[in-house]
């Protein structure tokens, strides 16, 4: 997902949507959990980040792990 061996799909998504729309400032809570290199601001910070893709196949919005999907 992150680092030099990131899957091309995630590289594409991170290029199109560099940060979550609902949390554009934080990367990770504790730096000891960053186990990849290089570290970039557009990295996926947590396994519950979500990408919304439009019907045309274009990435539309990126949400952080803090975004509530069920209310």
UniProtKB/TrEMBL annotation:
GO molecular function: glutathione peroxidase activity
Source organism superkingdom: Eukaryota
Family matches, as InterPro entries: Glutathione_peroxidase, Thioredoxin-like_sf
UniProt entry keywords in alphabetical sequence: Oxidoreductase, Peroxidase, Secreted, Signal
Gene Ontology cellular component terms for the protein in this record: extracellular region
Any Gene Ontology biological process: response to oxidative stress
Localization per record: Secreted
UniProt keyword Oxidoreductase, yes or no: yes
PROSITE patterns according to UniProt: GLUTATHIONE_PEROXID_3
Protein family (similarity comment): Belongs to the glutathione peroxidase family.
Protein name: Glutathione peroxidase 1a
Natural source organism: Ctenopharyngodon idella
């Amino acid at each position: 997902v992150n680092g030099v061996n990131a899957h091309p799909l995630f590289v594409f998504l991170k290029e199109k949507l560099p940060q979550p729309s609902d949390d554009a400032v934080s990367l990770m809570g504790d730096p000891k959990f960053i186990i990849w290199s290089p570290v970039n601001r557009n990295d996926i910070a947590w396994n519950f980040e979500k990408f919304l893709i439009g019907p045309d196949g274009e990435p539309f919005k990126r949400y952080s792990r803090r975004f509530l999907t069920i209310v």
